Amino acid sequence: MEYPALDLPENPKLTHNITHFARALRAAGLPVGPGRVVDAIRAVEAAGFTSKEDFFFTLRACFVNRPEHRAVFAQIFRLYWRDPRYMEHMMSLMLPAIRGVQEDRSAKAAEKRAAEALLDGVDRDLPDKEDTEREEETTIEIDATLTMSREERLKTLDFEQMSTAEVAEAKRMLARLQLPVKPFASRRGQASHTGHRIDARKTLRAAMRRGGELRRIHLQKPRPRWPNLVVLCDISGSMSQYSRMVLHFLHAVSNEKGAGWAKVHAFTFGTRLTNITRHLNQRDVDAALAAAGQEAQDWEGGTRIGDCLHAFNRDWSRRVMGQGAVVLLITDGLDRGEPEALAHEMERLHLSARRLIWLNPLLRWDGFAPRAAGIRAMLPHVDAFRAGHSIATLEELAQAISRPGDSGEKARLLAAL
User: Fold this and answer.
1) Helix%, strand%, coil% for the chain, nearest 5
2) In DSSP terms, which residues pair with 355 in a beta bridge?
3) DSSP per residue over 219-246, as a string?
4) Angle formed by the axes of helices 12-27 and 52-63, nearest 10°
5) Torsions phi, psi for 220 (to 5 deg)
6) Is the CB of residue 309 less than 8 Å from the CB of residue 199?
7) I need a surface site. Which of 138, 237, 383, 396 has the fewest CB within 10 A?
8) How far apart are CA 73 and CA 40, in angstroms?
9) How are strands ordered across the β-sheet holding 219-225?
10) Beta bridge partner(s), residue 230
């Protein structure tokens, strides 16, 4: 079907519709300003309005400049311009419903954000015309006593599948998370009446004061010491949504009192390594992440894990890992470099760390297998391999740190190699 050619100056209604469409895109998270709205109106005027496909790509060229925004734009375009019953479709995405025949699937994140944007300001509790006509139909009651609360459901939801409102709520929950660690015994000792080691120096000095008479054997026990936490977070395009949520979590850990960590060091990497430790020490999370974003210039770029680990091992390893640090590596392992070089750098990192834990959001898939060359090169050199795609998996991370024997999915996946 083709639309009749329209002259925009004589059709202010289309201009108004493009403006309202831009507002929906902005509400869904796309960076759409007044300048882009003007450019879109002029582009449609120049390109004409004769086919759906031309109109779609004309608006997309004006409003979309990032690959991850294409899905949201496509959903809003379909609902706003092409679906005559778009309001009913949006309500079905936002509200729980029981139909006679219902497709068994959950709405994608792009669909949910599109629905929220287009339903902004609409009272979802108002019945539509069809609901009024079906007032006399049988009401189906649901026993929801055993269903999960909203917070429990949000804990298990994938970060990438969250809507805008769910992301905001998840950030507030991450700010309350804790990552405590137990101290470990150092080689240095401290005086103790119940210690199991003899303090020879103190015992002999006490005997010398009495002319060599040994009256008491002084004991000591190992002095407790808390390790550093070193975090290496992948901020490439495939990890962008997970990286933002993990950095919120790291900000809470960095500013948490009584957690036990000696110090928290944070690094981001994509095409290069960036130290953002001092930025995360700011109390305000928004200011901290904004400063970290300005420092790291390779957000949503490519991935060169091997080169970035080489830079860390060469420039930072001795500075931040000299006291037996626990290392968290957050990445999907999809590297474009040589697997041999990546394996070598992972081995160096593993030998320098007290414990190396790899968080990979790809583990959210039940059928995940280590088929990528980068994952196969990295997996043998970690102590634990765990998922990192939800709040629940980050909560389980605290248990993994406190259990040295916890290897997560490493053993199962190594058997599949």
Assistant:
1) 50, 10, 40
2) 326
3) EEEEEEEPPPEEEEEE-SGGGHHHHHHH
4) 50
5) -150, 160
6) no
7) 138
8) 14
9) 184-191, 219-225, 197-198
10) 265, 327
* 121: its two tokens: 């300001």
Structure tokens at 144: 């929801």
Residue indicated by tokens 């041999």: 340
Location of structure tokens 């599949």: 416
SS3 98: coil
CB 345 within 8 A of CB 377: no
Instruction: Classify 187 as helix, strand or coil.
Output: strand
Question: pTM of this prediction?
Answer: 0.60
Tokens found for residue 240: 């962008």
Runs of H (alpha helix) within 48-85: 52-63, 70-77
As given in the structure block, the two tokens for residue 296 are 């790291």
Tokens 């968290």, located at residue: 328
Q: Which residue matches tokens 């079905």? A: 92
Report phi then psi at 208, rounded to 5. -65, -30
d(CA 235, CA 212): 65
The residue to which tokens 């700010």 are assigned: 175
